[in-house]
Amino acid sequence: MYNYTSLGKLDQEVATFEPSDNLLINGQPLNSLVEGYRHLTVTGRGLLGQNVSTTKVPGRRGVWVDGFSDEERTLEIKYQLKADTSAQMRDRFAKLNKILRTHAPSGFLEISFRDEPDYIYYGYFNGADSFEETSLSIVSKFSLLIPDGYKKKRPQNSTGSISLVDAVEVLPESITVTPTKTTNQLQILNGSKVLSFAGTYTPGKDIIISFDPDEIKITFGGRNILSELERFSPLENFTVRNGDTITAVNATVKNVVWRDERA
Q: 140: exposed, middle or buried (C-beta count within 10 Å: 0-12, 13-18, 19+)?
């Protein structure tokens, strides 16, 4: 789908066409990064499938479901690339190749679309069609792998209250609390979920829980205190839902960061 925009430049009207689902890579429209590039269509943004593991049980109908999980997502981008000379075409493909291999600080390509600018897919460039170069106007496709399958909304933060629109529940990105007094015991709560710490905690320094994808880290004044988390504290399952409020005992909740998500 295309939108029409009229731009005044040097007293001349210039007509430009940009798709309503124009592709952005690491926050920048790809057509603004590579001259001659034009986004045509995208497939793979619809329903996300699930993998269902089953076992056939003799003597009973159907199958036994062992488990299920969401599939990865593959986005297929159809594009046009134009140039005035063959040498210029080589330069433009070199630039396109470089951009599709340049990851953001997150370690991924950050992929978004103009019609859903607040949601980001985190993925990798993982394939491209072969084609015959018979002209200086190429129409082809490339694909982007989204391992998680989901797209994440830009971070939200509060001093404890959680708001979600699309996701049922998510793991926070970080929780920061500050001790209100010198204490040997501190708790962070969300309903019946309790993270308990046993150590020595004084005001003026923050306890920061970072729920990184590869590792959950807990520091107090920059010092690792993961060993001070008491047994049975549900760290990996400390998820939040819409309407939840994170509170603390012997501490004040300073900041909670989380992200809504869509399949």
A: middle
Separation of alpha carbons 73 and 162, rounded Å? 28
**Three-state secondary structure of 130-146:** CCCCCCCEEEEEEEEEE
For the chain, state the CA radius of gyration: 25
Residues near 243 by Cβ (< 8 Å), separated by ≥ 6? 162, 163
Residue 11: its pLDDT value, please? 39
Q: Are 3 and 17 in contact (CB under 8 A)?
A: yes
Q: Give every residue of the chain whose pLDDT is below 70, as ranges.
A: 1-17
Residue-level pLDDT at 3: 52
Dihedral in degrees, nearest 10, Cα atoms 95, 101, 106, 112: 70
> What does the chain look like in DSSP terms, one character per residue?
-EEEEEEEETTEEEEEEEETT-EEETTEEHHHHSTTEEEEEEE--S---EEEEEEE-TTSSSEEEEEEEEPPEEEEEEEEEE-SSHHHHHHHHHHHHHHTT---TTSSEEEEETTEEEEEEEEEEEEE------SSEEEEEEEEEESS--EEEPPEEESSB---SS-SEE--SEEEEEESS-EEEEEEEETTEEEEEEEEE-TTS-EEEEE-SS-EEEEETTEE-GGGBPTT--STT--EETT-B-EEESEEEEEEEE--EE-
What confidence score (pLDDT) does residue 89 get? 96
Report the distance separating Cα 169 and Cα 259, nearest Å.
10
Position 18 scores a pLDDT of 81
